[in-house]
Specification:
There is one protein chain. The protein is mostly helical and 168 residues long. The protein has one domain. The chain is built from 6 helices and 2 strands. It has a two-stranded antiparallel ribbon with strand order 1-2. Helix 2 crosses helix 4.
């Protein structure tokens, strides 16, 4: 690659994916039978938003700047919405983990499965122009990040399950 970044500044596939993901994800979260208290539900939703903001801002800003998000290097409304889009994904992670009552000895398989799903969604997001990798970054690095984050999420889930909301 010649180092020149070409961005599409029209409202098209990347923006539509974000909007549709937000709508569908929100509807799924609202339609699923309630498994958690409102407080815990909010925490699980915020896990995705926080994680998205945290890693995207660590990895996509100077001095490292491993990728740009959406149509240019500056932070825009669609960038914010792309972070909010992570909320239903994180909620589904916790919901499915709880629904199937995943035992600790099977947690690694669950985490691996979700890490592969996450990378698949990220690769599709790259293809449609949400992510623009640069400076040697690729989805292999994201896979490791997903493994770490989702492992922490399982640990966090176990803490909440063991102690309930009374400690938090």
């Amino acid at each position: 690659m010649n180092g020149i970044r070409y961005y599409d500044h029209n409202f098209n596939a990347n923006e539509w994916f974000i909007v549709i993901s937000l709508i569908v994800g929100t509807l799924v979260v609202l339609k699923l039978p309630k498994r958690f208290t409102n407080k815990t539900t909010c925490v699980y939703l915020l896990c995705g938003v926080f994680t998205g903001f945290f890693f995207d801002h660590i990895l996509s800003v100077l001095p490292v700047s491993y990728y740009d998000i959406n149509d240019n290097s500056s932070f825009q409304l669609m960038d914010f919405l792309s972070h909010v889009m992570y909320a239903p994904f994180s909620y589904l992670f916790f919901y499915i983990y709880d629904f199937f009552n995943i035992k600790p000895n099977l947690s690694l398989l669950f985490i691996l499965g979700w890490a592969f799903i996450s990378v698949g969604i990220e690769l599709f997001s790259e293809y449609i122009g949400i992510f623009h990798y640069q400076n040697g970054y690729n989805s292999y690095y994201s896979f490791v990040i997903y493994l770490v984050v989702q492992s922490l999420w399982v640990r966090f889930y176990r803490i909440i399950k063991a102690y309930g909301e009374k400690q938090f």
